[in-house]
Write the structure tokens for this entry.
Amino acid sequence: MSERLDLLNMAWEAWRFRRGDGPAIADRQQIRLDELVHHARTASPYYRHLYRNVPSGPVDVRSLPVTAKRELMGHFDDWVTDPDITIETLRRDFLADPALAGAPYLGRYHVVTTSGTTGDPAVIVHDARSWALLSLVGRRGEWHTVTTRHVLGGMARRGLRVAALFVGGGHFGAAAALESARRRNPSFAKRFRVFSVLRPIAALVAELNDFQPTVLEGYPSALTLLAAEQRAGRLCIRPVLAITAGEELTAPAGADIESTFDDCVVQNRYGSAEFVALGAQCSAGLFHINSDWFLFEPVDEHYRPVAPGAISHTVLVTNLANRVQPLIRYDLGDRVEPATSPCPCGNGLPGITVQGRAGDLLTFASPEGESVWVLPLALGTVVEETAGVRRFQVIRTQPQTVTVRLECEPDADPVGVRRAVDARLREFFRSQGVAPVDVRHAAEPPSVDAKSGKFRQVWSATSE
């Protein structure tokens, strides 16, 4: 099947199965899993070795070994199925240049980096079919939330203008996806803009007032902050759709965004750089997994399936589309709770609630004593992008104090890395209009949260 015909067929099935179809989806899952495993063990040296004891024939996904980010990244060149891709050349010739964000790599692949929310940033390569899921099954949630009234009353009259508030200036998943859309549609390039959350809030407000977006995309913490700026009268925009992703969107936060931006619908998505369109949240509050293209296994600490209503230790996810970098039974690290009964919204796709992924909005004092809000993902990126940092955590321990936990790369000089982190944090706080912040380093390394089991990167340990 030609690539064009294959994508047309995917588009048809994305519409056909938008509300689920258990037996038909199960059949497609099995066919796609069998084909994926056969391809992986044929074209990927890593999987060929990993599956050396897996019998041929129809695949029982539960019989396959679990894979994890750190292990896969350690065998990157053997993991990918295209020998033209190596991690050295990819980093040197592509990822090192922020201007190439969203550009096709080797003319046919889409490359993004993870934000490291589970502690280990990764480089993810998507082929055409895997990337197409972003616009096909990834848009399902919008089909029932954006009404004709919103389209005619907002976008048609004022035009489609999408403002994406994510970490910019690199190849991070969400920002790179928007840049990719801009490159593919030059006529819409001026209508799609990435606004980096690393910028001071005053600068973001000024730029958004000038751009006047009709659609907002971004982290819930970023959109919550914009809502506060709108209520204060500094921001004056009228979006009709707000799409959130990357962090937990609480019900109060969603209601706050909708009520502040009058007549604005909030759509909450669930996904990652590895799995670009896992699902979207419905009106009943459940995330519905796009199970026609993703095998989604909520499991306990021994990788055994958990019962509906039980909170998983993690989830194992298989991307049934990606052939260039197979992700099979990949430990995503999220804790989820499978629904115990059919969703009242009528969507038959599997429903879950997601635990965690929340980020604290941090507040510090300006030199004049005023409060300055700082986005957690913006602060985290400053540390994460410091050379030599492998894992980190930043905790606000006092009103003007942050404590940093660092794990350095094996070949890095820990003293030099700490100094670089200190310098970058001081410059970041200065650029945000924050009075000097005391940066301290903890003796203990980064660790998972004892209660949630999640690896939190940035949070506040004080309410002051």
